[in-house]
Amino acid sequence: AVPAGTPVSSVAQNGAPDPLIAKNADGTATYTWRMTGLDRLGSPRVTDPASYAPYAAYSTWPSWAELGRRFVSSFEKAAVLEGALADTLDARIARAPSAAAKARIAASFVGESTRSIRYDTRHWLFSPRPADRVWETAYGHGLDRAVLSAALFRRAGLEAEPLCRSIGAVVDAGVPGLSRFDGIAVRVT
């Protein structure tokens, strides 16, 4: 259910029905997708069952551009180095002979100083922990470590930007959302 006037984009694929839309007395609209009698998923399980099984996706984001601006803005605020962490990296890369060597040192530093934890990053996509905090706690999920990595690469003089990895081959262009992505990575140049 969404408040009155909230635009909703949706898609139904691989035999999933379009939604039934009910206008409620309080002005909200309720979207319902009902699928019955579906075959079980095949075995072995594939990474992206939506590539062949019925699915529905919806979004209240007005556009991919707006979603991207919001995500990148929060990522940028968190991907900043200060104090001891910046000094530590500076000392490690001081004698690095090339940009590639600096990149390897920064990447190794993430692995040495933080333990990766398996945790659903979707809860934190728009409020990631600051890079300094990830380093101080010495653990982080994929988004935490991406923020820390980007901050370290940038401090080393490299360009680093976040990107989303697709789970499968298809991302629905008309439905802005991050559910069809597997996680956050960092592209370094």
Question: What's this, in brief?
Answer:
By secondary structure, the protein is α+β, with helices and mostly antiparallel strands. It has helices spanning 64-78, 83-93, 99-113, 131-137, 142-155; strands at residues 9-13, 20-23, 29-32, 55-59, 115-116, 139-140, 160-166, 181-188.
As a percent range, the share of helical residues equals 25-40%
Query: How far is it from the N-terminal to the C-terminal residue, by CA?
Result: 43 Å
Strand order of the largest sheet: 1-4
Reported for the largest beta sheet, the result is:
2 strands, antiparallel
Rg over C-alpha atoms, rounded to the nearest angstrom:
21 Å
The helix tally amounts to 5
Structural class computed from helices and strand pairing:
alpha+beta
What's the mean pLDDT score? 92
Tally of strands: 8
- H and E string: EEEEHHHEHEHEE
List the uncertain runs.
none
Shape: elongated
Strand content: 15-25%
Task: Please characterize this protein's 3D structure.
- The longest helix has 15 residues, at 64-78.
- The mean pLDDT is 92.
- Strands 1-4 form a two-stranded antiparallel sheet. A two-stranded antiparallel sheet has the order 2-3.
- It has helices at 64-78, 83-93, 99-113, 131-137, 142-155, and strands at 9-13, 20-23, 29-32, 55-59, 115-116, 139-140, 160-166, 181-188.
- The chain is elongated, with a radius of gyration of 21 Å.
- By secondary structure, the protein is of the alpha+beta class.
- Helix 3 packs antiparallel against helix 5.
- Strand 2 and strand 3 (29-32) form a beta hairpin.
